[in-house]
Design brief:
- The radius of gyration is 32 Å and the shape is elongated.
- By secondary structure, the chain is an alpha+beta fold.
- The chain is 21% helix and 30% strand.
- The protein starts with 11 loop residues before the first strand and ends in a 12-residue tail after the last helix.
- The longest helix has 20 residues.
- Pfam families: YceD.
Length: 207
């Protein structure tokens, strides 16, 4: 059984003032501490960082429509050179929180879309929890391949040196012409072995 919502939790909001009056509006601005694991492996909002929320709550027939924007700092690392990076995130979102009895009405209507019904969020004693919506919005707004700069050259494939620090970085390589001659010599040696005369008795068909 899910725990009841706590109105004192930073990401729980109260819609009681709307009074189930369709068209009633309420605007809320709140600064909250970012929850744990708000992001993906390579970039995200640090736990405890300040997240600025601007919300618009609108009462509709089915429930409360929440529209908002979240702003927060991001930290991560460049996927090319692994250097730390910092960004500012702005994520927009919109979600419907249905009244508890809206579930009964929807069953009577028998929409037939079970997947959509499972994804619905509901108010609980006029409260709603914004955290799952915030998490989805942040992840969708994140760069999947963050880089410190668009033209970051990355790391040397041989020694791991950061190429941006040493644009002339290189390793001495063998002359490809010598490599080609070496390969030809090996091919000739293999051919000589195949063409060498066999000693009597070497042929497995001679018995």
């Amino acid at each position: 059984m899910n725990a009841r919502l706590d109105h004192r939790a930073p990401l729980v909001f109260d819609t009681r003032e709307l009074g189930r009056r369709p068209g009633a509006l309420k605007r809320i601005s709140r600064s909250v501490a970012a929850p744990k694991d708000l992001g993906i492996e390579v970039i995200g909002v640090p736990q405890g960082a300040t997240v600025e929320l601007d919300l618009r709550l609108e009462s509709v027939m089915e429930g409360v429509l929440v529209t908002g924007t979240a702003r927060a700092p991001l930290t991560g690392e460049c996927v090319r050179c692994l250097e730390p990076l910092e960004r500012e995130l702005e994520a927009d979102f919109q979600e419907m929180y249905s009244y508890p009895d809206a579930d009964d009405r929807s069953r009577d209507a028998d929409t037939g879309d079970d997947a959509e019904e499972e994804d619905r969020l509901f108010l609980e004693a006029d409260l709603f929890d914004l955290e799952p919506v915030l998490r989805d919005a942040v992840v969708l707004a994140l760069p999947l391949q963050p880089v410190c700069r668009e033209d970051c050259p990355g790391l040397c494939a041989e020694c791991g040196a950061r190429l941006a620090d040493d644009p002339d970085h290189h390793h001495d390589a063998a002359d490809i012409r010598w490599a080609a001659l070496q390969g030809l010599a090996e091919t000739m040696r293999d051919g000589e072995k195949d063409n060498a005369p066999r000693e009597r008795g070497d042929d497995p068909q001679e018995k």
